Input
Amino acid sequence: MPGPQKLPDLVESIYDAGLDPTLWNNVVAGVRDFVGGQACGLFSKDSISKSGVTHYYCGADPHFIQLYADTHAKFDPLTVLPPQGKVVSVPDLVEFEEYRKGRFYQEWMQPQGCSDAANVVLEMSNASCPVMMTVLSGRRMVDPGMKHRLSLLVPHASRALLINRTMTAQLTLATALADVLDNLTAGIFLLDAFCRVVHANSAGHALLAADDVVRTIAGQLVTSSNEANQMFRDAFAGRNGTLLAARGQAMPLLSSTGERYVAHMLPLSSVLRNGSERVVDAAGALLLRKVSLDGQSWGELIGRTFDLTPTELRVLLSIVDIGGVPETATALGIAESTVKTHLHRVFAKTGVNRQADLVRLAAGFANPLVN
Output
């Protein structure tokens, strides 16, 4: 006889477990009562090693659950699995009298006061380790009514398990991506259409805490450059067209201590694709990193890339790290006219014509993974 929980309520609890796996314990209890068995379990079984792991169960002694995992999974009748979704009893799988003489029945089923079980494969995303449900019937044999009642639950339980798997995969991916972002030294900010910060990585939070080159005012990201602020507001507010057009642009920023940064904008394709207009959606990402070319290898790489002479490279690095022509002349101990001569050659070789463009160009050679 069906238990006290009605089918619609039990189905609802199954989908609740799809969103919250901790609720499967309640589900297996409801399944046992609805089907009319002694115990119920949700378990997986490796089709190669024949080992089994019970994930959720009710009505069984934990000793037998462990015994199944340690020893008896390899002896159960599910050596050859039934088709997914088909409810089968022990006599559907093996010759029953032979089964009763075997170790599984003698050492595992009979000591629990059970003779038969209704079994069904629910989920086979991992073909070598399917997820199954079993209802132990007690002393009586599984009858057609028990099979029918369990079959009513199968499609819902299968969908709930797929929801579990999908959510777990998405959470794993999100966690992995968050770990990657947090290990970057570049500050990354996800911004909505109003330039409000939806998310920031660890480096981004550090930049905000410094309250210098970037800060938040009423949740909105603001930089040290009014020109950059207007550019970002226009780009993010414009969403599809403007942000995509601004994708390749970079904006140099200067901290109060003279440190140089460069910011890049990127649209988030998932938001642009679904056309959502919720203000909590991230419209795009802002990547902000310090222009740091202190390592000799980076200077050598820039020099090799653009075939710069040693003096031209020193001028380029000085322009990036220190500032304008007078400052570079003082730092290098050469005349301003000499700096201008080398700077024009650098412009010609790199294909840019402004000092701000040199900062952007140099930023492309900075490694965001280096602390």
